[in-house]
Task: structure prediction
Amino acid sequence: MTWTEITTMAQWENAYEQSAARPIVVLKHSTTCPVSANAYQEFSNYLQGEPRSDVNYYWVKVIESRPISNAIAEATGVKHESPQVLYIDNKAKVWTASHWSVTKAHMSAVLD
Result:
């Protein structure tokens, strides 16, 4: 399964709008944090398995793309944390997890 890095505000706005028709999962990742590095690996492991095929998967580097990270928090009403995974369907937050709760097992239990 592929996942796309969101690097521009236009990409985020497009992904968020498309969630009205197809759910999205977004990983907010800090490139300087060991906890985030673990979450990134867990997210990657989840996607290497058999993730839902009716979902689009994205990730955002929160330090390098702070305005996008802030826009995600504003659009979803979910306070920023890193690492953080958000499941968004119909432009609304359905589920979120952060820090050590971002695991392949947790994502599988919720998303599958």
